[in-house]
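Changelog-adjacent note: as of this version, every example in the card shows the full chain rather than a window. The one below runs 560 residues end to end.
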Amino acid sequence: MPGMSTIPRLFWQRVDDSSDEVAFHRHVGEGHWDAVSWQEIAGQVVSVAEVLREAGVGPRDRVAFYSENRDEWPIVDLAIQLVPAVHVPLHAPLTAAQARYQIDHCQAKAVIVSGNELATRLEQAYERLPTATRWFSLDSIDRPPFRPLPSLAASVDRPRAEDAARRVAEQVTEEELATILYTSGTTGEPKGVMLSQRNLYTNATSTAAVYDQDPGGLRLGMLPLSHIFARVCDLYMWLARGNEFALARNRETVLEDCQVLKPHWLNGVPYFFDKCYRILREQGIAEQPGAVSRLLGGRIEYCCCGGAGLPEYLFDYYQSQGVPVLPGYGLTESSPVISVSRTDAVRRGASGRPIADVQVRIAEDGEILTKGPHVMMGYYRNPEATSQAIRDGWLYTGDYGRIDNDGFLYVTGRKKEIIVTAGGKNVSPILLESLLTQDPLIEQVLVVGDSRKYLAALIVPNLRLLRRRFEQHSAGDTNMALADASMLEDPRVEQWFEAIIQRQLASLSPYEQVRRFRLLERPFSIEAGEMTPKLSLRRKVIEEHYRDVIDAMYESPKAD
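Full-length structure tokens:
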């Protein structure tokens, strides 16, 4: 049957198998969440799909969806695939120029925005929105050309719409293009990663098969669904496993939402797990038995981690708390999952074992290569980049790694993120950064030094903790109320951070030592373009933003 291994077919199988069971928890305000059944979800999905069809969106047309996480996100995603069109999700933090580039490059037939803020951003980018494009919004926007998607969907003949959507599910093939995701990773120009229905289906179902999860358990999503990690490992695993699902209101409310929803599982990036650890340390309860479980709602069984390597101190801490954080590995071009850890198959420093039907080997230079049904179709309208990334069916990941005798994959560095000093020494900045951020006074850090005589660092301190320590050491000092900028220039503060650097890097070789550093007042952010949506540092952007600061660290002879 043509549609056997596709997301539309998986969706209808779940609806038919679990029709009246709770599928989703929708936030309705003031800490209250309503339960929504699979049949209700299906009604919403087919209605939106019918609106798009009636607007002239057809098979293989691209539909750009510019939105933050919200309860409608899964509905829109599934509806686009039941047209069947191609979903092009745009990250909400994109600037107006970035969003316009992606919309234009994919030649979108329709654009859906969440609300007025993002609509205004696009109007500023275009000055005059293209009239040939269909424009929709989730929130009501009282100006053309935006049309309110929810109210249009409410007037649809649902039985007729469901018949059409079920026919689509039977006709969509595994080879059809399902989505285009623009990714520049931490460096480079945006490239449109093309993923097929087969890519998404096999990756979601093979990953879901690894975990034994009660269908009545609750999954809380907090990562951007516009990123493939959350889309496959939260949204499509929800379809595959039939769990209950809820989306955190935003990234600042995750822990509050955990207290109300009491999830059994959640996916996160190292930044989140480090943040939880820091909160518990600041409260002085990090070592209390059950501290992590209570922070995450009391029912948490385990968490999965991706997007970047999990520092070993975090791995050890969560293991000791009985709430293991299970590392995995993948990238957008691999749909994304390559390897995962399980509660009964996890190793410190490893990213688990490859999932079913995924081959992994290590090239002669140490690069991780992978082959299988998860490898992308290619980069949209970029055959040259495609031919560089995929050779003889093998995807060249750009990451270095090794495989142990038991099949566990270890990611040891990023080819493009290796620093080569002026002395020819190779240094992994990620290793140094993970060691430095183990100290609670360091919130973020970027290590630099490519083609330089020594390493230097831009450090974002935890200003709240630093202020507390500064005031404790300034009792009776009339200058204790210094502004942040002045405090960061205080000689005592500089000495504290010098001591932290020496202590945290003491086990490394001389050429891996950070000789100079600067303390920054503001954190690196997605909004400034300095972090990816999965919270990885965009090194080239940060280095450009702080070019003068970095150059100044190499002008003094102090560390030569």
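Structural remarks: Residues 418-559 form a domain with the GMP Synthetase; Chain A, domain 3 fold (CATH 3.30.300.30).
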